[in-house]
Every structure is written in C-alpha cells, then in structure tokens.
Amino acid sequence: MPNIHDAMWEKLNLDLEAHAGLLEVLGKFYGDIYMSQQGRLKGMEYLDFVLSEVHGLRIKELQDAKASGKKVVGTFCVFVPEEIVLAAGGIQVGLCAGAEIGKGEAEKVLPRNTCALIKSFVGFKLAKLCPFIESCDLIVGETTCDGKKKAYEIFSEYSPVYVMEIPQMKNASDRQLWKSELLRFKSQVEETTGNKITADSLKDAIHLLNNRRRVLQRLNRLRAADPGPISGRDALLINQISFYDDPVRFTTKIGELCDELDERVKSGTGIAPEGTTRLMLSGCPMAVPNWKLPYVIESSGAIIVGEESCIGTRNTRDLVDEGGRTLDDMLDSIVDRYMRIDCACFTPNTERLDNIVNMALDLNVKGVIHYGLSFCQPYAMEAFKVEKALTGAGIPMLSIETDYSMEDVEQLKTRVEAFIEMTR
Amino acid sequence: MKSRSKDQTVAGIDIGSRSIELVVLNADGILRQLKTPTTFDPLGQCRRLMGELEGGRVIATGYGRKLFAESFGQMDVSTITEIQAYALGARFLHPEARTVLDIGGQDTKVISLSETGKVFKFEMNDRCAAGTGKFLEFMATALQVPLESFGEYALRSDRRIAISSMCTVFAESEATSLMARGERPENIAMGLHMAIVQRTIAMLRRVGVSAPVVFAGGVAHNPCVVRLLEEQLGQPVIVPGNPDMVGALGAAICGKNGF
Amino acid sequence: MKPDCFEKFQNAGERFLLEVSELQDNGKKVAGIYCLFAPVEIVRAAGAIPVSLCGKKEKPIPDAEKTLPPNLCPLIKSSYGYAVSDTCPFFSASDFLIGETTCDGKKKMYEFLGRIKPLHLMHLPYSAAEPHALEFWCEQIHRLGSFVEESTGQRIDRDHLRFQIRIHNRIRKLVRRISLFQRAQRVPISGLDIMTVMETKSCFVNPERYISLLVEFIAEMEAIAVDGFSPFETNAPRVLLTGCPIGKGSDKVLSMIEESGGAVVCMENCTGVKGLDLLVDEEEKDPFLALARRYLQIPCSCITPNTGRLTLLNRLINEYRVDAVVDLTLQCCHTYNIESRIIGDCVEKIHGLPFLHVETDYSNSDVEQLRTRIEAFLEIARWSAPAHAGNGKPPARIQFSS
Fold first, then answer.
1. Which domains are seen in chain A, by residue range?
2. 8 Å CB contact between C165 and C282
3. What is the ipTM of this complex?
4. C68, closest residue in chain B (CA to CA)
C-alpha cells in the first residue's frame, strides 16, 4: 500500500517494500500490546500518534529542519551529552533499535553471538530500514562495550561514525579523560553544525534537558502509587519516545499526561486492581519496539512500576547542575553529571547495586526482573551481583536473558509466572 | 478459597510437550492417576483423559495450561506454572525435600525450596532442548535402542568416553564419528548420558544444591541418569514412585490446599 | 630433531614454581598478570616476579560457571575457575594480581577475582590516536608503579627501571629472532614447539638466565637449520595463525593444522610475535613515558580501530611467505570475533590468500567438525599456493554453516 511519505523515504534511500513490511508488523505488534490495554490515559493518545508517525511526520520534521540548515546527530547511548548538540543548534535522536528485522543482513558482517541491540542497528542500516540513520549529519558511537566498540568499525564502512571514549572507572584521571572527550565532542559538533556553543546557548540547553528529565522523574513518582495508575508498558513507551521526539514538545505533552496521572492517583484509580504484584525491571535498555518482556510480565498478572535501565531511570535520575555561569563551569557540570551514570561498563560499579536496592525498596516491589540481552557480558556479569544485593535486602530477583526473537515467549511466560507465584 | 464438601474431588493435569498426566485427589488421597502421550492433538487427549470426570476443581499446569483453561471453560479451571506444581508435588511426597530437579520432555528445571517448602529460586534451561528428555529420546533413536531401556543399555558400558557437545545435533555427529571409529554403542550411550548429567549439574550448582534432592519428571525413570547424578552430587537422589506424575500431583494439591 | 635445551622450555613452569618458592621464602613477591599490556618492567623494577595466569584448560570451567555467565570466553572462565578452585599453582604462588580493562569479560571478571587476592586494575584507553590517550596511560603506569611498590615494599629506582627496560627489550629481540627461523623455505621446527618456547616469555624467574637459555636455543637452532632438517613435508602449506592467545592446553587448532599437514610458521597473537617488534625507547629520559608509548602500540583487538594489527599482519604475511591465514578466536570474545571480518577482508583482498575463521572454545566437542574444516582449508591452501597457482584456482573463502 502506498504511503504519503514514500517519496521522502525513497529520497532517504530506504528499501520501500521492506520498510512497508516493517511498519505493518510494527503496527500489528503495537495494536496487540498497546491498544488492547483497558483504561489507558487519554494522554497516551499523543504517544500513540508519535509512534505511528515516528518514521513519518517526525522524519519530515527532521528533513524540514535540515532544509533550514539544522543538523541532526544520531546516538546509541545515554553517555552522549545531548546538551552539547542542542547548544550548537542541532537535533539529537536515538538510533538504538529493538526489532529483529535486519538480523539476517547484520549477521553477514557481525558474529551471530553479538547482542540483539547491536545486530539490530547494524541490520537497520544494511537493510535500509531506518530513516533516522539516513537523516543524520553525524553519527556518534562510544566505547561502552566490546560489541558496540567493534561494531562501529564495521558500521563505519557504510556510514562514518565519530566514536567517543567512555571511561571504565571513576578515578580522577578517568574524569579528566571524559572531560577531554567532551571537549573533543564539542569541537566536532561545532564543526558539524557550524555554530559555536556559547555560555547562553549551553545554559538554555542544560535547562531544557533538565526539564525533560524532571517531567520523566515526575512520571516515575506518580506511577509508583498503588494501585498503579499507568501500565509499565506505557511508561516504557514514554521513555522510549523521549529519544525521538522534539524535547520541548515532549516535555509539555508529558507534563499534561502527568496532570492526568495526578488526578488518577488522587482518586485512587488504577490500571490494574489494588494488590496486583508490583515488579521492577533492571538491566539492559529496551529500544522500540522491544516490548516483549514487559508484555509477558504484564499479561501474567503483574505491573511494572519502574525500569532501572538506560531507557528508564539511568537516563533521568541525575540532572546537570544549573548553577554554572561560565561555559567552562557548565562543561564541568556536564562532565560530573555524565560520570554519575551507573552503566555496567564501569568497574566496579557498586553504586548501581545501591541504586537498584534503593529503588526497589522505594517502589515497594515484590521482586525485580533483571533483563539482559544475550551476549551482553557486562550486564550478565552484574546480574549475579545484583541478585546478591537484592536478596540481601529481602527482595527476590529473576534473571532473564533473551533477545528480540519471539521463539522463547512461552518459556518466558512460564518463568515469569512462576516468579510471580513465588513472590506471593 | 471456597470451602468444599468432603467427597469433592480435585484434579491436577500436567500438559507437557511429550505427555499429559492427570492426578485426581479426594479427601483420602490419590484417587486416580493417568498418563497419555501428548500427540498433535493435546486437547483431544486431555478430553479423553478427563473422561468421566465431572465437576470439581481442575488445576492445569505445563505448557498447555493456558490452552486447557481456555478450552475447558465450563469447568472450574485455574492454572499454575510447572515450577510451583513440581515444588508442591515433590514436597507432598517428600516433605523434607530442599531441591527439586525435573527433567521433562523439553525443559529441565531446578527448584530450590526454603525450609518451609516455598520456592525461593529456580532455573530453567534456555530455549534449546539440549540436555532434556528430548535429547535422550533423539539419541536413543539414533542408536536404535528403545527409550525405555536406554538407561540400562548405557549402564552396560565398559568405558567412559566424554561427549562434550550438549547440542542435540552436534552430539549426534559426535556419536556418529565415535561409532565410525568402532566405539561400542553402549559406551557412546554412556557418554551421552554423562553429557546430559553434566549440564544438569551445572544448573544445580547455579541454584545451589541443598539435600535432599528429589528427582522428578520422565527422565527420572532412567537409571543411568540417576546413577550419574548421585555420583556427581556425592549424595543419594530421591526418585518418587511415579516421577512423571509429580507435576500433576502438585497441581491437584494446589487445588486442594492453595499455595 | 629438536634442540637439546628444548626440554628446558617444556618444563619451564615446573622450574618456575620451584625457583620461585625459594625466593618467596626470602620475601620476594610474585605478580600474577593476565595480559601483554601489563608492563613487566615496572613489576621487575619493584623487585617482584611477573607470571602469566591466563587459563588455557577446560578443567576448571565448571567451577567458574557457578558465578560467571555461560556466554563468556573460555580463557576468562578458565582463569577464574583456576582461581576460585585454587587449583593453579601459579595463581597460588601469586602475591597480588594485575588486571587491565582490555575486554568486558575480563574487566567484570576482575571484580570477582579481586575478592580472592589483592588486584590492581589498569584502565586501558581504547585508541592510541586520541590526544588524551598517552598521558592517561602514562598515569596508569605510574599508578601501577605505586601499587607494586606498596606490595613489595621496594621503591622503583629509575636507573633500575631503565635496566629492566634494556633487559626486556633484549628478551623481545631474542624471542623474535627465534620466531624468524620459521621464515626458512625448509621450516626447521614445528609451530607447536615454537609455541612451547614462546609461551615461556611470560614465565621465568631470572631474566639473565632466561636470556642465556634463549641464546643457547638460538645457537642449537642455527645448527639444525644448516642441516636442512624440517618436521614438515616439502609442500606443506605455510600457515599464519592469528587471533586470540593460545598455549599448552589450548593448542587444539594449532595442533590440528599441523597434524593435517600444514606448517604454522607464524603466530600473530599474544603468545606469539604480537608486540615483539615494539621496543621501549631506551634513550627517552622519562622511562615511564617510554613504557607508556611502547605498550600503547600493542595491536590488540580492544583498540579501535586496530589498524596496527593489519600493518603487522601485512608485514608478517610477506616476511614468512605465508600461503594461508587462520584466524582463531575464542567463543564470545567479541572484539576478536568482530575484527575477524576486517582481517579476513585484508587477507583475501590485499594478499589474495585463503582465510579461515575458526571460533572455538577449550572443549573437544567440535574437534571432528574442526578437523574437516581445517583439512578442507589446507587443500585449498595447497591449490592456491604460488607453486600451484594458475590451474583453476578454487574460491578462497569456505562457507560453512556451522
């Protein structure tokens, strides 16, 4: 079926037929997982719309912005400081992918035992399915994990990638390394956009992105109510969309949605009955449309009340200090904020354990499901330690390792249901 | 839970990938236990198995539990997972049990029980069928030995050779190449049993083994697996009289007592 | 026909343990290391003895899997398994450990290892080209220095450090020279034996005595080479083995290549010649900076982009007149596995040589399949070797759906 955006997609050199197939599958999947929910918030209509137009109107917006001289920067990781891009008048978009569709293409150039997230973004590029990648003026990678670090070498045979080095420890010299990487990134972004970053523009960017984090923090506080006023799936979707949408519009819209949530919480209205098992997710990020596990969990009689992941609290927990006056002060504040990220790429990363236990206690969950993508070694290794920390605090944990395919859904159901039974 | 009259029966049905088991309980204990292959028509098989059973509460477990609950809507059906079912069943038969191992048709489960009998940790094999009952079935066929006597056959080995591949497909090619080198098939069978036990031990270690260990599921009928497990664990393993009925029994008990 | 002193290399481990236990009674410390990036000159200058602890056998892996996830390379699992089950005498002998952030698996494994013995972790930058890299790495070497000084109670004297630099440069040159015997038309010694010799470069107590042993070996080898002896058939394909480190116990693929009629003439890996041509600048005023510069150039797959490995391979392929390249990577070693495609492209497109990527672990589960692949590969290598070229060259890359 022809689409009104076909001409634009064709210009972006997408494989129109395969892309149409992707949209169809995605639409059906979304219908099954999202539209089938009862008692959703009215504010979710905005997200339904954004998602339905994520490859359409949003790309058109980007193209229009490009036509007016703006530059688009694509990233794969919450370490890449969006403040810099925004301050230089650029637009940042997330390029992580959560679909299996390009796997065959990706496996031609990557080993099969590479994590699904990496195979997915390489696959999207190779199969010509991602209008975001094709809209980028600069693609930024980072050295968070072995798989990504080396996959960028392969990816850059198709699109050049600028790679940032992420420190692995948190000593003074590591902070210095990160600072020098931030400055290098700043020059690169200034070169790409042709705009100099000033104290004023950076101040505005910091404020704007802090506001986006604040609204997501508010969402997290509100959804913690019992009975849960919003499904974990919907909350995850909001977090996912925050990587694609215009930050100002997104913040306003989610603010409105939070007002609606506030009403619900006050009136004690829940999306699931009181006493539904409250669970928390922790671990690897879930990029659109990777809703498999949340769906399995929430169709097994539980509700997800928090995500400890990059598409969750790891991205929204910490704000950049807004007290800085000079450009250099502000850059330092950015360095400090990003150094607080508790990604498993750090060693020994004990703060993540504290953060998880505190979050689980605050949210009063019955258990935590640790989600690891197959072959993601940093998170797989930490799962063992997370389990120890949680069990020590009297909170049971289930460790799930899976990928984007659907073949293990039945088995996942059994494990998740058994876990829910166990926590009763 | 609603109170029930004394003579009311409770049924547990375990719809697995290979077989379906039914256990019916009344106030005095086990009234009936039946088993049938799953075939390609699991619902038909369930219907035949349920037969004259009228009314009463049914608890379904196993892969087909949801399908069963949907299709037998006219009855009072609820579902639990195999993890709970096996834990409950094993604990009922052996109240002292602290670890339950179930090797079924396509799943291996290791369940760790607290002192009070609650499940506090479990592991399942990943999506592949390596190291499950299916693996043994496949290998027995490859060696042209009936599955029922595959364990005894392996116990007739005179030498232990390592088969390191856990993958059903690769293990077969490994077995074939051993055969080509003139290895006795009994020894190959033993190697295959050792491979399955090695994998199981690794899972047991992950959960942590507390004694006593109850070994349930269809593969518990296999004397070679039992012997090797005991050797590796350095302790005896309890095999219930009807190891494949434990899941259905646990489901029925759940219906009777709740968790 | 092997040099008489070959035996001394074969039992280097046992001799190390014997000698070291005596020295430890007198207060000497042993530093367990896991990687070529650990600057041994620093360790020696602080009076400690470095020894490699990389696990190369399958046996301790089940012990490791109680804690570590299954999707991890066997080297890491084996290393940790040895440590946690206390079944490696070298680990037992180590007073402290030095780790580095070369890969995710090791980096996170050290978190567990650090619970068993004092461990110092070096943070390795991922690109030597970045402006901060050298300074950062130099700082890491200073940090290591302080740690070793504290552990041994012996200050690092700069002159002593320079002395150690000279000694270790000498060792690198000698080991490299040994590897050069394999350049000959008639390859005088098997790749397996050369591996046995080269593996000892991370397992000796006294550097001076080790140097004499290397010199002795070279002298004997020269005599053998003059004789024109070779353990290989005259038409044996000359194979360059690259990829992950191997050693006694994890020599499965190397042995299989040679059993199938190939001659492994060069090993471009951490056990082999990787880094041997990189010498520390003896003239540089600041020995720490000189060390930092040298170590940062090691062409490990953890570096991105790892162009140094391609440069080295290009040189070695010509130097050893290689007929075929086998890239041996360990299962779940993401960096080497992903890099394999880049290596393969270089070997096939630039050199027009057959290339085989083998991903395996320490188990024997795949030996039959591997043997078939390697034999088929060597057939191709024979057909396409210069002597046979021209008569219907078969396609170079074999596609196996393993």
1. 6-31+50-197 (3.40.50.11890), 202-320+326-334+341-423 (3.40.50.11900)
2. yes
3. 0.94
4. B206
